Amino acid sequence: MIHKVAAFYQFAALPDYRELREPLRAFCAGLALKGSVLLAQEGINGTIAGAPEAIDAFVHELAHGALFGGRLNNLELKFSTAEAMPFGRLKVRLKKEIVTLGDEAADPTRQVGTYVEAAEWNALIAAPDTLVLDTRNAFEVAMGTFEGAVDPEIKSFGQFKDFAAEQLDPAKHRRIAMFCTGGIRCEKASAHLLARGFAEVYHLKGGILKYLEEVPEAQSRWRGECFVFDERVALSHGLRERGLREQELGHDRDE
Fold first, then answer.
1. Catalytic amino acids?
2. Using CA atoms, how far apart are residues 179 and 206, in angstroms rounded to an integer?
3. How many angstroms separate the most distant Cα atoms in the chain?
4. What's the per-residue H, E or C state across the chain?
5. Rounded distance, CA 128 to CA 81, Å?
6. Which terminus of the chain has fewer Cβ atoms in its 10 Å neighbourhood, N or C?
């Protein structure tokens, strides 16, 4: 059986997120879905897997069902497949942030950087006045990244704001192009930089996964593989499965 995998997120006001947990968990369990979903006042973030028709029903409920009442009408979604179920169980957790940065001024519902489609990304990062910044953790960067990208050498995304304070200067770094696995960390990071006075901040829409899905390998500026937080571990061009099991690597989810 081929399992369909959905990675998704949206920043949206969910003041009732605590009350949403059990109904969402029950709905997922009823569809025999497995994976991880995070709920917070600022939105939703997760990756789940199951039968194709079950994933389709889940996505329809998020975007159009009564549970969220139309508040998730702009989901960032990416689909892939797995030959074996990539998750051991279902987890629906409550968090203070759906991706942890710890900066109240970084509010993607108010301002974010300029989205760049995968087809336009190569031209942007090839420009000599563009600082290309990988916002992922160091172990992810070690598996693969874009040519010429700066590695902030952070162990978790929460350290990004310290890197920005110490290494980035609005007067010097006039144009910054950021990327991450699926896009969510860049939304927070771009909001953080804009709040600190950076003028031009861009980020890859849909993240590395969308780029690997849409850009032909012959035209790609990506080198290596993309770490994902499930048992497939890494994906390459065309979102083909690579790597060992996540448990053998021992890394916790950051996106």
1. 180
2. 9
3. 54
4. CCEEEEEEEEECCCCCHHHHHHHHHHHHHHCCCEEEEEEECCEEEEEEEECHHHHHHHHHHHHHCCCCCCCCCCCEEEEEEECCCCCCCEEEEECCCCCCCCCCCCCCCCCCCEEECHHHHHHHHHCCCCEEEECCCHHHHHHEEECCCECCCCCCHHHHHHHHHHHCCCCCCCEEEEECCCCHHHHHHHHHHHHCCCCEEEEECCHHHHHHHHCCHHHCCEEECEECCCCCEEEEHHHEEECCCHHHHCCCCCC
5. 37
6. N
- Amino acid symbol at 184: I
Residues written for the chain = 255
Tell me the two tokens of residue 156.
């978790």
Query: Do 101 and 190 form a contact (C-beta atoms < 8 A)?
Result: no
- List, for residues 92-131, the tens digit of each pLDDT value: 999 999 999 999 889 998 899 999 999 999 999 999 999 9
